[in-house]
Structure formats: structure tokens, C-alpha cells
Amino acid sequence: MCDSGIVSLESKRYTKIEVSLHNKRTDCWIIIKDKEHPSGDAILAHAGDDSTEGFYGPQHATRVFDMIDDFYIGDLQKD
After folding, report:
1. Can you tell me the distance from the alpha carbon of 51 to that of 68, in angstroms, rounded to the nearest whole number?
2. Is 70 left (phi over 0), alpha (psi -120 to 50) or beta?
3. Residues 6+ apart with CB under 8 A from 16
4. What is the CA radius of gyration of the chain?
5. How far is Cα 72 from Cα 32, in angstroms, rounded to an integer?
6. Is 35 strand, coil or helix?
7. How far is it, in rounded angstroms, from Cα 27 to Cα 22?
8. Maximum distance among all alpha carbons in the chain?
9. Residues 23-37: pLDDT tens digits?
10. Rounded CA gap, 48 and 59, in Å?
11. What is the pTM of this model?
12. What is residue 8's predicted lDDT score, i.e. its pLDDT?
């Protein structure tokens, strides 16, 4: 917390290697536009990897794009 009483909301950064370790049904993360998100069964083929292209495919209703930020857990650390 800052002296002013305002909490700093700095994003957590993850390396691609860290994200790649979360590749199981019970612990599944994906990368969408350089941001990490927990995920589920439907995208296990891309678990621990970049799913940006598939996420923006025609299978998703437009409301999904509004909801994705609710699942954001951090940013991809650039190498």
C-alpha cells in the first residue's frame, strides 16, 4: 500500500516457461494477447501455450470478449 492509502495494482508477470507448466485439466492457463488466463477442458490442446488465434475464432459469442478480462491473472513477460 502506498503512503496515500491507495493500493498499487501492478500486474503479475509470467514467463512462457511458467505458463507452460499449467497444462493440466485441473491447472490450465492460456495466453491471449500476451495475458494469462485460467482455462478449462475446451482448450486443453493449447494449455500452457498461446491461444490468441483460436480464442478469436467464430466459435465464441461476442460476450466472451467482454468477459475475458474477468479471468485475467497477469501479463506475459517479454524475453
Report:
1. 13
2. alpha
3. 31, 76, 77, 79
4. 14
5. 9
6. strand
7. 5
8. 47
9. 888 888 888 888 766
10. 21
11. 0.64
12. 43
CB 17 within 8 Å of CB 26: no
28's grid cell: 490450465
What region, left, alpha or beta, does residue 4 occupy, with left being phi > 0 and alpha being psi -120 to 50 degrees? alpha
- Joined together, the cell numbers standing for residue 19 give 505458463
Cell readout for 35 is 495475458
All three cell numbers of 29: 492457463
Cell, residue 41? 477442458
Find cell 491447472 and name the residue. 27
Please tell me what DSSP assigns to residue 11: P
Distance of alpha carbon 27 from alpha carbon 53, whole angstroms: 21
